[in-house]
Design brief:
This protein starts with a strand and ends in a 5-residue tail after the last helix. Strand 17, helix 15 (about 390-405) and strand 18 (about 425) form a beta-alpha-beta unit. It has about 625 residues and is α+β, with helices and mostly antiparallel strands. The protein has four domains: about 1-125, Jelly Rolls (Sandwich); about 150-275, Roll (CBS-domain), CATH 3.10.580; about 280-480, 2-Layer Sandwich (Beta Polymerase, domain 2); about 490-625, Up-down Bundle (Four Helix Bundle (Hemerythrin (Met), subunit A)), CATH 1.20.120. The strands form six sheets. The chain has a five-stranded antiparallel β-sheet. It has a four-stranded antiparallel β-sheet with strand order 3-8-5-6, with no helix packed on it. The radius of gyration is 27 Å and the shape is globular.
Length: about 625
Amino acid sequence: MNSIEHNTEPLISGRILCGTRTFKGVSPDSIKALVENSTLHRVSPGEALFRPGDKYDQQLYTLVEGNIVMHRPSGNQDSCQPGDFIGLANYLDDDDYHSAAIATTRTTLLKTRAEVMHRLEQDHPDLFNSLNRVIAAKLRERSPDRSITSGALAQPVIRVMKSPVAFCGPETTLLAAFQLMKERKIGSMVVKDREEKLLGVLTYSGLAEVMLLTDSSAEESIMKAACETPRVVEPDTPLWEAEELMQRYTAKYLIVVEVMKPIGIISQTDILRTLIYRPSTLSNRIRGSATLKELIGHSSQLASAAEDAQETNHRPSTAVRLLSETHLMIQKRAIELTLEWMESKGYGPPPADYALIIMGSGGRREMLLNPDQDNGIIIEDGGAKENKQQGEWFERFCKRVNRNLDKAGYMLCPGEIMARNPMYRKNLSQWKKQVSHIISKPTEKAARWSNVLFDFDTLYGNDALTMELRRHVLAEIQAKPRLLKLMADHDAEGRPAIGFFNQLVITTKDAQGEWIDIKRNGLRIVSDVARIFALQNGVAVQNTSDRLKALARIGKLSDDFTVTVQEAYEELLDLLLSHQIRQARAGKKLDKLIDPEKLTPQSRGTLRMAMRAVKRFQDRLQDDYGTDIF
């Protein structure tokens, strides 16, 4: 193998890379920096870049011209295209080679030292994003087939789409389109010509952004300023494929077309609504539970509900969200039975308006099979109505709620973050005062507390009280962001299960074995970083996946990086949910601990890749707050 460096070849290499799929969206300047900091490298037909067992040479290769075939340990063979990174897994994991890379033609590559590539990633965000795009694709490739053949997501989009679709012509002005969407209270509209051929799609938010943030005239044509390229599907496309397209392209809407004529539109909300409100025997039984004993019997079927959610949903995050809705249904019914008990004992109805709030994984709609209780209660400010009798009513009510939830399978919170604790049983003004104090004078203890409390949502009662408290939290933390630094420090206490040489590392040991805590050393880090960035940027949504999407929309995270983190998050959720379902089937105590030695080589590789993506996300937080993680 001979290194070659002629004056014209780096320029030619840069031009070639500009037109490849890997470097789509990467600026010429960044590609030039990569070329100038690499050496050109040629291999002859039949020659190997590396073979299984070879020591990692601290280089990342980029194919420029020719053909390289990757011979995988599984026996599969993949042909690389110009622009493809070769040895990327070794670069990410700092691990020796397990595959063979064999040239089938005379081949030219860029050879970049690992330390140089790390620096280029930091200096050129678009290069960083291109690697994230490849990581996300590799995570998808390593995932098991999640095709759905039954259940709500197997039905075609034509059954769920909104039709007829609102439309306008290409001559419509920005102002006219904006007024039309406002009057009809719709979030999207297609653009079609006189032959009804689809030309594009408009969104309410996109129109507002163009009109407020650019120099576009209100009388300018939508085609020049605001018309977006539509993502389209055929009428018989199953919902799970539509959901996957939305995730892959960060699209809120898909246009359903026949011969490129729009016949309907479907949104992310439409799919989620279909999943949440699909008929369920268990849901009906939960709602119809007349006694706590009946409810407890239904809660014992949660493992079956989890298995059903996993089998009938394409993405693990959606399955977990639906499992969470079942949890919340049980908890809401437990509260209703508690209210009935209060009435039957002569304590009467609630003396004031209130919102029982759920925190942590429940607030994010990310509960697995064994969540504990994290809850509180916001009582309306009543002025003169606030008295001892009211306080006694809510104290009795909250203690009974926590007791009944414990009986229904939601164990009492070891840290006493529960409504029965006076610290979490306050009126709205007291909650605001407590939040303001914590944000104004942050401590390490307050940071740990905030990483649970600030994922809160209404469990039962008046959602307006919850929304007002959330508005107060976001406003206060925007004005006084010091607490976020301590929250970032607290996040750094839990490290991804990847070591200095980017190998999987054990995080928990006991008499039975050595484990990786998938929640503490994986999922929790993703949710922590997403929460901190959401609070930093005034994002009000609670669910981790929703936060990632929102952060991408406002430009805090690039689309490619968001997809990478989301794919890693999906893999970790899938691994942990499957683990708990197996434990439940076997009648074992549920935990969040995975034995990496019991995973297949492919699953270990996927877990390692996911943990590497988690570390990149945590590193991003470190860059923002200067947290010394390692």
